[in-house]
Design goal:
The protein is mainly α and 293 residues long. Helices cover 63% and strands 6% of the residues. The chain contains 12 helices and 3 strands, in the order ββαβααααααααααα. The longest helix is centred in the C-terminal third of the chain and has 34 residues. The radius of gyration is 31 Å and the shape is elongated. The protein starts with 5 loop residues before the first strand and ends in a 30-residue tail after the last helix.
Length: 293
C-alpha cells in the first residue's frame, strides 16, 4: 500500500497518531523506542496494547483473537471442572459472546463493498461505451442521421471526467441506439449481439455498485472503531477475572491450570517473517607451505 495513505494507530491512552499504512508494522517499535529513549525515560506512557490500526482487522488483532479462541477450546475441554463455579461460568459466557462479536465485525468488514471493484466496473463501461458508441457514430454519419448521432455525441475525455451517474446516462443512450440498430451493426460494423449483451451487463453491474464503496467506507469505519473495544473487552475478562479465578484450581486441577495458561500465549502467525539465511562460513585459508629442508 502507498506510504502516504492515511491511517491511525491507537496506542497511548487518548492519543491518535496518523501514519501511512505501509509503516504500521513499525509503529509499535517506534513508540517503544520513544518511551525508552534517554529524553523520555521515566515519563509515564500508558499503553492500549497492542497498537491497533483503525482500519480493517490487522494481524496483531487476529493473533489475539486466535488466542481467545484457543483459550475457549480449553474451557470446553475442562468444562466439567470450572462449571461448578458460577462466577467462572458467567465469565466464560461473556468471553464467548465477545469472541463471536469480534469475528462478526471482521466478517462485516470483509463483506463490504470494494472501491477497486467499482473502478474496474467503471472502466468496463467506459471502454464498451466508446467502442460501441464509435461504431454507432460512424453509422449515423453514413446514413446522415443527426438524431442517432446526437445519442452518441461525446468523447473519451468527457467520459473520463463524468460522474458515475452521468456515465451511466451516456452508456444507456449508446446502448439504446445500438440495440435499435443491432442488425446493421452486426453485419457491417462487427458489433455482435453478444457484445451488446455484455455491454448491458456491464451497465447493470456499475449501476448496482454505484453507491456501494461509500456505504462500505462508512460501515468499515463503524465496525473498526468498535473492534479494538471488543478485543479489550474480552482481554479484560481474561486478565481481570479468569486469570485470578483459575488459581482456585491450581492445586486440585493442575492439568486445567497449566493448559489454560498455555492457551493464553499469543502466537505470532504473520507468516511473513523469513528467517535469515545462515551466512556462508568463510573459506579457511590454505595451510602455509613448509619448505623442505
Amino acid at each position: 500500500m502507498p506510504l502516504g495513505f492515511p491511517g491511525t494507530v491507537l496506542c497511548s491512552a487518548g492519543t491518535t497518531i496518523s501514519v501511512g499504512r505501509s509503516i504500521l508494522g513499525l509503529a509499535g517499535r517506534a513508540l517503544g523506542a520513544f518511551a525508552a529513549s534517554e529524553k523520555n525515560r521515566g515519563k509515564p506512557l500508558k499503553w492500549r496494547e497492542p497498537c491497533f490500526y483503525s482500519g480493517i482487522m490487522n494481524q496483531d488483532q487476529d493473533n489475539i483473537t486466535t488466542m481467545f479462541e484457543t483459550t475457549d477450546k480449553t474451557f470446553t475441554q475442562y468444562q466439567s471442572v470450572w462449571s461448578v463455579m458460577p462466577a467462572f461460568v458467567d465469565a466464560v459466557s461473556r468471553v464467548e459472546e465477545g469472541i463471536t462479536a469480534i469475528r462478526q465485525k471482521q466478517a462485516d468488514q470483509e463483506a463490504t463493498g470494494d472501491a477497486a471493484a467499482k473502478q474496474n466496473a467503471r472502466d468496463a463501461v467506459e471502454e464498451q461505451t466508446l467502442s460501441i458508441g464509435s461504431q454507432v457514430s460512424a453509422l449515423a454519419s453514413k446514413t446522415n442521421d443527426p438524431m442517432l448521432g446526437a445519442k452518441v455525441n461525446f468523447d473519451k475525455s468527457a467520459l473520463d471526467k463524468a460522474a458515475i451517474s452521468d456515465l451511466l446516462i451516456e452508456a444507456k443512450s449508446v446502448q439504446g441506439a445500438a440495440n435499435d440498430n443491432a442488425a446493421v451493426l452486426a453485419s457491417d460494423y462487427m458489433i455482435s449481439a453478444a457484445m451488446l449483451t455484455t455491454f448491458g451487463a456491464a451497465i447493470t453491474t456499475l449501476g448496482n455498485m454505484k453507491d456501494s464503496p461509500r456505504t462500505a467506507t462508512v460501515n468499515k469505519r463503524v465496525q473498526t472503531l468498535s473492534l479494538p473495544g471488543a478485543i479489550a473487552y474480552v482481554r479484560g475478562i481474561l486478565r481481570n477475572e479468569i486469570d485470578k479465578m483459575i488459581i482456585a484450581f491450581k492445586a486440585s486441577q493442575p492439568d486445567f491450570y497449566t493448559a489454560y495458561f498455555a492457551a493464553r500465549v499469543i502466537i505470532d502467525r504473520t507468516g511473513t517473517h523469513k528467517g535469515k539465511a545462515s551466512p556462508t562460513p568463510p573459506t579457511p585459508p590454505a595451510p602455509p607451505v613448509v619448505p623442505k629442508s
